[in-house]
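Open question from group meeting: does this chain pack into something compact, or does most of it stay loose? Before anyone orders reagents, we agreed to write out a predicted structure and look at it together. Recording both the input and the output here so the notebook holds the full record.
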Amino acid sequence: MFKNKKYLIIASLIVVFIAAAAFFVVQIKPESGKTFKVKKGNLETVINCKGEVKGEKYTEINLPDEICDRELRVYQLKIVDVVLEGKEVKKGDYIAKIDESLLATQMRNQMQEMEKMVSDLRNAMLDSTVTLSKKRESITNAKLDLEYLKIDLEQSKYESEAYQRKTQMNYQKAELEVEKIRRDYLLDKNRLKIQVGRYQSRVADYQSRIDKYQKAIAATTIRTPEDGIVMFAKDWSGKTYGKDSEVNIWNPLIATLPDMSVVITEAYIKEIDISKVQLNDSVRITIDALSGRVFTGKVIKIATIGEDHKDFDMKAFKVIIRYEKTDKDLKPGMTANNDIIVGNFKDKLLVARQAIFSKNGKQIVYLKKGGNITEQEIELIAENDLFGAVENNLNEGDVLLLYQPDEFKVETEKIASRQ
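Structure tokens returned:
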């Protein structure tokens, strides 16, 4: 009996010990991998943005002026064929073909209209010839009548005074009639001349437009103005031009021939970050296609006006980054990852981002000294993805927790963690 009691007591003590150990394990979090020691070092803050490698100088290949003539009334055309982007070309090489069907249709319409106008011109010229011929005949007849009356007037001197007066009046009336017919002839001549001239002008206008359509159709084969590597432009949505793309005369750029002796990256930064970027900020650049290579550059241009961009849900600002050195392996169109260095803090106390918590609008760390844990407010002067830099309330070597102890959580956080 006594022996059984002894075993029971020992078993009870073991159970109590196990329960206490379990409670301790649950309440006290293991410290391994859960602390960070404050250290001094340099902190670099960067803004990352992706961009496209380009040549700072380039030759533009635009829709020819013959096609962009607004008098043609063709404002948007389709690209029906292109060479491969990145192809090396020589001056005069073929790179693209523009659909000429709209131009050809418009030209046929103009030719039909001109045929009608030419017919109207012929009718106007015939009408002018007939009308003026009749007018000249009327003038001739009126002059003959005037000559007859003149003879009567000369013979009337042998007649009575009344007859002489009547003959003289008839002669004067005939003179006035001749002058009237002559004036009418001149007026009709000028009127018909203007009418014929108007038709001739319209015919000339139609012919001029037809000539422009013919030149535009001939210009639909796009060739390079010089040697280079072909890089096609992008439409308003950011899509690179290719077969079946639409290009319009208000944005006539089709392709470029970049000069890679000076290399740039063209990138976009969202509006909430653009104020941090300054001209001449240093940039570290890595290229997706050139693994392990790092290039350096500087910001040389920042757009003053934001624009809509397909990769952002807010306004974005274009920045231009010029490489300090070029490289034969850099090709236009490569994707570049750009780290713009907007801050460089030397010899500062560094705290892991995981050790920084927000509480009641303040930045908080949990300082561990011996067996005690205290809540310490800090003021961040800068931060990046890994660390934050502070200037007060901490010392080098301080140990910080990488988690928030339960006793420092507000009540809602405790409830949420238990759930």
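Observations to bring back to the group:
The chain is about 35% helix and 35% strand.
Residues 15-32, 414-419 have pLDDT under 50 and may be disordered.
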